[in-house]
Amino acid sequence: MSRAGLAVAAVLLAVARPASAGDNDLILSRLADLVLDGRGEAIDAVGSNQDFRSLASELGVVMAPRLSEPADTLGLAGFQFTADLALTRVHTDRSYWRALAGSSDPAGNAHGGDFMRTFGLFARKGIWLPAPSFELGLGAVHLFDSRMWAAQAYAKLAVIEGYHDAPLPSFALRTGFSRTMGNSELELTVLSLDASASKSFGVGGIASVAPYGGWNTLFIVPRSDVIDKTPHVDQRAEPGDLDLNFIFADQDTILRHRLFAGVKLQHYVLSLSLEAALALSGGSRDDRAGVDVDCSEVDAPTAECDSRDRAGAQLGLTATLGLDF
After folding, report:
1. Where are the domains of the chain?
2. Cα–Cα distances in Å, from 162 out to 28, 70, 324?
3. What is the pLDDT of residues 160-192, one digit of tens each?
4. CATH of domain 3-324
């Protein structure tokens, strides 16, 4: 690696502080209700699958595979190191965000809408296999004020690229993968498919500008581990407390769509990308077999019902600093 690459790596390691518990860690037990017997004693805990689905939908957008690159690949001999900072809106005024460790309102109505901050590090390499104009990337994203990280990977194929002197834009197809770690109660996997177009322009012979945009589809798959509704109770001393452990139902895949647009500025090996993305509101449904009742239409926590994704539209803003070799 060059001296410049080593210097950037040292700076990024210094910036990426060790993760510690914070306000953005999740306490999923808050999304469950206790079932009481006739004497008012808790006998069961039932999680709100609809809240779980909506929470996973919005968090999935926050931790989804990064975009932030034009359609052109790096070329056969090219490789790139980048660091990015992203802000993604979440609707903390909605009930499902009471799962946040930093939520001061158990009903989840403390705020009207906040932006979660994430920091990402990536390495990308252009190759010619399995086809020309192919690119692979690996990286990791950290959610600030939490223990959560996401390991990410992607592959991009430029269907059209390199016609910089002709009025023909570059066009690429890309797939990405993200797996969130750091929370013992939630497994969150996000698959991404997108199509993008871009056009590069020279500026004074010393720099280039490449505006780009596209459409992205996210497939979010959340899975719940066993959750203790009363973690303050010693289950060895109170064996009956084991009955209050619960698990959220496996959800059908959550579908979200994003529009994105940005611009990449490059001078020699140094690049800067600025991007805005809008994830449209959620609406997918977890279809329980033999049930045709929406969870918003029932009051009993034990009722079988279809969970609907109630996630709102989410704006994302990303700034990326890179070294392209």
Report:
1. 3-324
2. 49, 12, 17
3. 998 877 889 999 999 999 999 999 999 999 999
4. 2.40.128
